[in-house]
Amino acid sequence: MITSDDILDALTKAAAYDTQHTPKTSSMLVAAWLEHFGRYAPDADRDDLLAAVTEYHREPRDRMLQPADLSGIARAIRRDQLDREPLDSPRRIELEAKAERKAAIDKLGQSWPAEPSTGRPDRPRTGINPLSVRCPFCGADASRPCTIGGVPGVKRADIRKTAHPSRVDAAQKAMAAQ
């Protein structure tokens, strides 16, 4: 797992290659990059990240370095290492099992909390899953989070963790019909 220090080391190494196209470090930048790697390259470690910096700078670039550049390379490095391991190695078995669990969860559409907040204090959690029905307000398909803001008391950034009240009502009706 990548740490803040790992990100600082990677940015320092990247600046040694190309100061013009490496972002200046700040606590906010490091926090954003840490969030990115936690989400898009959770299995990557310090060695993967530093190797990704080296690989990224193999050719000249004329744009600012982004975390997605490095996370993609780090994931490829990790996959390559995994492919080279024996089929019965404990590390390979563990990582493949983890990938299978994640794929199964994503396929079922349950990568979001089973009981998202309704966004309204007058509508407590009911034990139903609003993601089990299509949202009549924003049109989000079943198993996908709501996509449009507008839930009273919920910041736009939190909308992926909530469901529109009309979706909660639709899920309650669907549950009652069963």
From TrEMBL:
Residues 106-128, 157-178 are annotated as: Disordered. It holds the Pfam family Phage_zn_bind_8. Residues 122-176 form the DNA-binding phage zinc finger domain. InterPro entries: Phage_Znf_bind_put. This is DNA-binding phage zinc finger domain-containing protein.
